[in-house]
Amino acid sequence: MRVTLKDVAEEVGLSVSSVSRVINNTGRISDEKRKAVFEAAKRLNYTPNANARELKKQTSSTIGVIIPDITNSFFVRMLKSIDLRLWEQGYNIIFCDTDESVERELEYYQLLKEKNVAGIIVSPASRSMIYENETQNINCVFVDNEPYMTEKPYSFVSINNCEASMELTQRVIDQGYRDIIMIIGSLDETSSNQRLIGFQNCLRANNIEWTHDRVYFGDCHYKSGFEIVEDLIARNRLPECIYAHNNMEAYGAYAALRKHKIRIPEDIALVCFDGKDPTFMQDTNITGIIQPVEEIAEAAVEMVLNNMKTPGKHNRRLLPYGFYEGHTLKSRT
Amino acid sequence: MRVTLKDVAEEVGLSVSSVSRVINNTGRISDEKRKAVFEAAKRLNYTPNANARELKKQTSSTIGVIIPDITNSFFVRMLKSIDLRLWEQGYNIIFCDTDESVERELEYYQLLKEKNVAGIIVSPASRSMIYENETQNINCVFVDNEPYMTEKPYSFVSINNCEASMELTQRVIDQGYRDIIMIIGSLDETSSNQRLIGFQNCLRANNIEWTHDRVYFGDCHYKSGFEIVEDLIARNRLPECIYAHNNMEAYGAYAALRKHKIRIPEDIALVCFDGKDPTFMQDTNITGIIQPVEEIAEAAVEMVLNNMKTPGKHNRRLLPYGFYEGHTLKSRT
DNA sequence: TTGTACGCGTTATCAG
DNA sequence: CTGATAACGCGTACAA
Q1: Global pTM?
Q2: DSSP calls for A258-312
């Protein structure tokens, strides 16, 4: 069995509460006994029991982080930033990769509640059911995507996806492109949804006809981007420019194009969101909108910590985004 | 306050222990009351308290995973695989990114002990102090790197790095290269160490003179690979082939070469370990040894779960590795 | 300054 | 089949 407060109390001939006091540095204790306690604790290799402590104090130092897929470098950088901030504040992370599954997301959510986590940061999957039957007041901050239909107020941090998408589309058009298609994820993801709306708005504003074969539905993964483009190639339907709504689909699209020796951007242009990964080779990063991952993570952490102090208070922050000039879009003349 | 067993017990007019029995499906209970309990639990939105439960049962369903840097895609894939396996077995993960810091690694280790985790899977940083003063019998499986000097037996899963490094070097030599340099990490990392030894052995076996300027010390990160190569270029000391001991340093090296318009593999060859990332564009993956990440993760999970049942039993597994034929090494003739 | 006693929410043992 | 009761390890109000 493990060494407990009781053990070190017996070792030094004190009461459990006294030992507890010196360990937690609470209340007055004679220096002499304090020293004795520390020595005994060290000697016996005493390790506090976090379960007992948290049960007693009704608090926790862990935050649940729910993301759809750690394989996506966007979420990697997000997790890294969140982790860094939380660590600085003395919190640790229960890692929840839902693999884009709403069921798994819900199970993780349940688990986190059982674990009494101090808060949750979640980038919800499409049609997330997390909040559907939620009646309690959970400290939950949404990132990147908003929950799918809910009456409950919630905290949220992201960018203005519609506006960013319009800007991106306009930049493409400004380079002389008109035949543009978009690969998006599920419409139930608000980010995906907003990006599509921005795309449509911008086309309309530029008097470019909207047709339904301008949009292809992927599942946010590399493979779907790859397959969609392979199919386009097979049907000889490649447009002038492909706009993938996220990085993974863009990478897949890129790979499919390269496989068929189609040159980028000479033969076709490619843009997307979050297509610049600092660990990638520079010349393969993709032109497009850049979300401020670090700032988003920072804001999310700030919110989740604040919401601990003042529960029930929710806010919404949309951060400024950037544009990355890569090598996959050139002037078309 | 949260809803407890007591609350639902009062709601249905039963004792706490009876309610506990139906929740855990242990012991006999009349179907009628069982149903009542479930209904009440649902109505009140009862959520079990994992802290209390674990405190009582002296068990835990969480595993700590300690890695040096989640920004490295190798560890991403590792984490993803570990997560998948553990999830299937009903375990969840406390995520510990040490940022290559031994101090932080140690603090995380301490934290995990306090949390009473069921086990730990750790890819230790160089000069890891985790095991230095460990006297208890912790269920800890080492991955990729071995602990830095310890008398204690431990579980370990990896590949034979020395052998793999020899094979890689031989392949380079077989393509007609003799002027090869190596970028490695700290010698205190056993993996790095072994790879250097393999490199040296192979050079010797091929009667290629060993000189100290054949080895450059990086820190496992992109930046160090980049800077080392920039420096080589500045000093006009580029070899025929660069062998980076890990993927990140190779990416950095690649970027530096490209920045100076040096062609790969026409002007210089580049090889490394784990240079193939499924989410990368295919034509930028780097030739070299491939560790079986999924299998390593699987084995680690298997070990950590087994060690729970039979504590004190340790074993060591070296898995077969592969070779990836990329586009960064061509025959030199 | 120190010790006693209680309770956090559960589960397990032992009666009934 | 069901209900007290103790105990997991800890922190704290209260008493001394």
Answers
A1: 0.94
A2: HHTT--TTTT-EEEEES---TTS-GGG---EEE--HHHHHHHHHHHHHHHHHSTT
